Amino acid sequence: MDPMPDAAQIDAFTAFAETLADAAARASLAYFRREIVVSDKGAGVFDPVTQADTEAESAIRALITATYPDHGILGEEGGHANRDSPYCWVIDPIDGTRAYIAGIPLWTTLIALSFEGRPLIGLIDQPYLGERFFGRPGGSWLTTRGGKQALAARDTGTLKDAIFSTTSPDLFESVREQRILSALTAATRLTRYGCDAYAYALIAAGRIDLVVETGLKPWDVQALIPVLQGAGGVIANFDGEPVMEGGSIVAAANEPLLQATLELIDKIG
Amino acid sequence: MDPMPDAAQIDAFTAFAETLADAAARASLAYFRREIVVSDKGAGVFDPVTQADTEAESAIRALITATYPDHGILGEEGGHANRDSPYCWVIDPIDGTRAYIAGIPLWTTLIALSFEGRPLIGLIDQPYLGERFFGRPGGSWLTTRGGKQALAARDTGTLKDAIFSTTSPDLFESVREQRILSALTAATRLTRYGCDAYAYALIAAGRIDLVVETGLKPWDVQALIPVLQGAGGVIANFDGEPVMEGGSIVAAANEPLLQATLELIDKIG
Question: Cys-Cys with B109: which of A226, B25, B125, B129 at CB 3.0–4.6 Å?
């Protein structure tokens, strides 16, 4: 069994994650708001893959392979490398490809490092805004063009006081899911659509209280976990279990709000 | 009857609109992502009014009164002044108050000047992004931290190729409106929620093709018209009529797309 990484190693991984984000930003900003090539991967489903996505993931993979050749890598475009490593970099170069295509600067680059299946560090980067959210054991922080600040989720303890966000009502496909969405919009103070991973960063930043979404992939969610947890936030699936693999998830500013949300979902049946 | 303003006057009004936007930005940025006071104006409806909104509108009104004391002013917070003037400044210091409260940098400051009931100049400002969209007879442009660029809407002529945006499905309340929203999301290439007035600016910028919304007020819509029209875009209500007073509106990148959307709405009955 590999030893747990020590503080110096975690510092090195954090600095390296910044290098990866910088490389991704060069590709993502180069194509943002330019005419881009869009291909449909799914049958009948609009699933855009931009040139930027592909170039950014290639750049990230090349850097990881050069620096940590034994580490695992999991990404949407390039599959899973070095599956047996205790370390795995899980990357989504452009989360929110629809926002990206529509010219809306709320897409993000997601970079996570896990150790033996547990989240270690996470990074949520929005290079057009110049905002980079970090999380790791012991804390979360945000760097902007103006400096660096610690992140802390809010203590909003009830649904009626909570600011709720989800990317699209279309994520709630089944009748049960539609009932869950209706109950959440009715129970919360305010609903805001259209944020993708950026909404989770705003839970860590103490602005949004609750995000509920379905159909997430490992690369959609793994970077969010350290950022949320380092800021005091919590994240679980609809059954209250860990969410390293994605699925239907609840992210909340604190444990009471998570429990209130899981109770609401449970009552829907 | 007052003479039409000449080019020099329009230049002066445009420069003054920038002064107004700068004043609004000082108030809006001072409170953005800080704990703010929220009051409910409506009964049972969440209608946030922030301190920033009030301070920004006061600052704008004071500047207009000092510089153009005879001009009309219409704003959400302070009502309608100098109704008999041929000129009217129509202002919404913070369009997208829900985005503002949730810490999402897509709210905007809207400033319009009309002459004898027709739109003359429009400004859509997002000071956190450093993006300011202008429109007036003869053209539209965007200024950013990087410079100034002309705006041009796209030639996307069919719904199936169009990127569609609307702020929230909750804008579509009646059964008819819900059917219109379903038809639009099914007919278009991609749907994106959560943009408020910023979506209209992105039509002018050639990134989004279509926005359909209901329940807009004069101060929600008047600044958008010159920005859209100066970039080749079009805007009308569900009956194809002008929208100075707001209501249920369609904004499109070009006339064929507007007509296709009005036909879709008309078929819903």
Answer: B125
Give alpha helix (H) positions in chain A. Answer: 7-31, 51-67, 97-101, 175-187, 198-204, 218-221, 224-230, 255-268
B243 within 8 A of B235, measured Cβ to Cβ: yes
Mutant choice from A36, A49, A192 vs B, greatest count of B C-beta within 10 A: A192
| ipTM here | 0.91
User: What count of other Cβ atoms lies within 10 Å of the Cβ of residue A30?
Assistant: 12
pLDDT tens figures, B23-50: 999 999 988 988 654 555 544 444 445 6
Beta-bridge partners for A115 = A87, A118
Task: List the structure tokens of A103.
Answer: 């010219």
The sign of the CA dihedral A232, A238, A242, A246 is negative
Distance (Å) from the alpha carbon of A174 to chain B's nearest alpha carbon: 16
Compute CA distances A118 → A87, A137, A186, whole Å. Answer: 9, 11, 35
Q: B193: which chain A residues are within 8 Å (Cβ-Cβ)?
A: 167-169, 193-194
Cβ-contact A118, A134 below 8 angstroms? no
